[in-house]
Amino acid sequence: MLAETDGDHWQFRRDARITRLFATVGRRTKNGIPYLAPELQLLYKAKEPRPKDEADFARTVSFLNPESRRWLTQALSRVHLGHQWLRLLEDS
User: Fold this and answer.
1) DSSP SS3 for 9
2) DSSP β-bridge partners for residue 5
3) Residue 8: pLDDT band by 50, 70, 90 thresholds?
4) Range of the structural domain that residue 40 is part of
5) Do 23 and 29 form a contact (C-beta atoms < 8 A)?
6) pTM of whole model > 0.70?
7) How far is 37 from 65, CA to CA, in rounded Å?
8) How many domains does the chain have?
9) Phi and psi (nearest 5°) for 55?
């Protein structure tokens, strides 16, 4: 998922117009365990969401900070215009 880069930017493999500063694509738990930024993971899950992906979105969306929410909204609008999560991102 993170192999596509352009300099110091990660590129979404399904649409290279969607990028993110590479330093912001990963996070760490308080115990130092690395994980993918939730908004990136949700973008991958949005292509053909399964029930577990819908559940992940429902559990995660309220924890996204405003910048992460804005980024996900813009990315979904670019690759999945009309996606049901766009309405939910605006409503929550």
Assistant:
1) strand
2) 10
3) confident
4) 5-91
5) no
6) yes
7) 11
8) 1
9) -65, -40
